[in-house]
Amino acid sequence: MAKITASVYTSHVPAIGAALDLGKTAEPYWQPVFQGYEFSKQWIKDNPPDIVFLVYNDHATAFSLDMIPTFAIGCAASYAPADEGWGPRPVPVVQGHPELAAHIAQSVILQDFDLTIVNKMDVDHGLTVPLSLMFGQPPADDFRWPCPVIPFAVNVVQYPVPSGQRCFNLGKAIRRAINSFDKDLNVQIWGTGGMSHQLQGPRAGLINKAFDNAFLDRLISDPTGLAAMPHIDYVREAGSEGIELVMWLIARGAMDDVADDLETLATNSIATHAHSTRARHRFYHVPASNTAVGHLILENT
Fold first, then answer.
1. How many contiguous H segments (helices) and E segments (strands) does the chain have?
2. Is 125 known to be catalytic?
3. How many other C-beta atoms lie within 10 A of the C-beta of residue 70?
4. Residue 97 a catalytic site member
């Protein structure tokens, strides 16, 4: 059976991608940011996934304001890096996993979550920057990412956006879907976006370190309580773009320690009390292009 072994959480700041692409990672401004991912790059080499299920938000490249799905799953065989106005990032085409993606789509829809199935789209920095941070820049002589990726786009751009509770519950449904796939696969689920930041208006440049670190604390130790936090708290405390953090709750809801499906537990022959999740790495830095950068790795044990 397929199994989610870990979840990864990270900001996806576009300027981080530019710093990588332009060779600026060792500059004094950027070096502390990338230093925070050195552990992660070694960790993922030691714990390589067969597939990454990557939760992110599109930034008006695949979806315009003419049509914005709340939840969209990529079922294509590949996804080209998007041109966001200054040319595509010089990173590999993302290879998908249509078989698992289609299985997840069917399972999650039959659990009463409405998904948009996408068979063709380009992917922007929201997806490619996390890949670069975790895997590093692929060498020119092997220009490919180490594993397939299933893109899962969430609308956090145009209100109404999904609640944290909805996202958390969706993560549980995704976990059940992956656990029911009949091939032995090591799957990691990544939640991206955030942390606190606001890009416009009188509060442009807002960063709230206290909120961000409290969010990380609760994501580890109280995800069920955190899922109940209303939209207004995100916007008030973390800025207009801080709402992206609801995407982290999809990844968190997919972890073993919050499983509440007895049938799934029985299938895996694991008693409820045996489920636990541990934090392997935590990193927080301010600023990175007027944005707070947060990063966390959790493992199922």
1. 11, 10
2. yes
3. 18
4. no
Neighbours of 107 (CB within 10 A): 18
Catalytic pick from 12, 103, 197, 295? 197
Q: Please, are residues 82 and 153 in contact by the beta-carbon 8 Å criterion?
A: no
Task: Quote the pLDDT of residue 266.
Answer: 47
Looking at every residue in the chain, the average pLDDT score rounds to 94
**DSSP H/E element including 237:** helix 231-238
Per the CB < 8 A criterion, the answer to whether 294 and 283 are in contact is yes
Please list the helix, strand and coil fractions of the chain in percent, rounded to the nearest 5, in that order: 40, 20, 40
SS3 115: coil
Burial 288-300 (b: 16+ CB within 10 A, else e): beebbbbbbbbbb
Torsion of Cα atoms, 254 then 256 then 262 then 265, to 10°: 120
Extract the tokens encoding 99: 């078989």
Distance between CA atoms of residues 138 and 125, nearest Å: 16
Looking at residue 265, what is its pLDDT?
Answer: 47
- Structure tokens given for 146: 């180490």
Hey, what amino acid is at 35? Q
Instruction: Return the amino acid letter for 215.
Output: F
Q: pLDDT digit string (tens) for 165-216?
A: 999 999 999 999 999 999 999 999 999 999 999 999 999 999 999 999 999 9
Is 85 exposed, middle or buried, given 0-12, 13-18 or 19+ CB atoms closer than 10 A? exposed
Identify the residue with better confidence: 266 or 3: 3
Q: Given 125, 231, 273, 281, which residue is catalytic?
A: 125
DSSP 83: B
Tokens of 294: 């947060």
